[in-house]
Design goal:
The two termini are 15 Å apart. This protein has 149 residues and is α+β, with helices and mostly antiparallel strands. A 4-stranded antiparallel beta sheet has the order 2-3-1-4. It is elongated and about 55 Å long.
């Protein structure tokens, strides 16, 4: 789907404030509110807007560990491993990667004990995983999202 300038403006405004009203977006873009409403509906139906959600600071919500885990998997089992990993609530971001590792993911847990349990009890039981490499963030300097415009 090709996005025009109005679509891009609507997306920018919603990324800045997902609670911005359609009337406010209409005022800022100079198009009727009904146009904004229809375009947002279309953007959702096309999957460009995946969902509306609150961006939460995990450290303020009681989580102390944000880790990136690189995973190496037997080639024939990568897709199955991704399916299993995508079901785990601790996994925030997950993807098949190029480069040194097969899968990269971001995990958020309450503490080191929960990270250990995740690595042993959950990650360790996924069939086909050969090795993992875990890096824990000591601080976060930017929280964001995919900003495409």
């Amino acid at each position: 789907m090709a996005l025009d300038n109005i679509d891009k403006m609507i997306l920018r405004f919603l990324q800045e404030n997902g609670r911005m009203s359609y009337s406010e977006i209409a005022r800022r873009t100079g198009v009727p509110e009904s146009t904004v409403r229809l375009r947002v509906k279309r953007l959702m139906e096309e999957g460009i807007i995946r969902k509306f959600a609150a961006l939460i600071n995990p450290f303020k919500a009681g989580y102390t560990i944000v880790a990136f885990i690189a995973v190496d998997v037997e080639p024939s089992k990568i897709k199955r491993a991704v399916e299993e990993l995508s079901k785990l609530p601790e996994v925030d971001v997950l993807g098949i990667a190029t480069g040194a590792h097969d899968i990269l993911m971001q995990v958020t847990v309450r503490d080191l004990q929960e990270l250990e349990n995740f690595l042993i009890e959950k990650l360790g039981k996924v069939e086909g995983i050969k090795s993992t490499e875990t890096s824990i963030l000591t601080s976060v300097k930017k929280w964001g999202y995919a900003r495409v415009f």
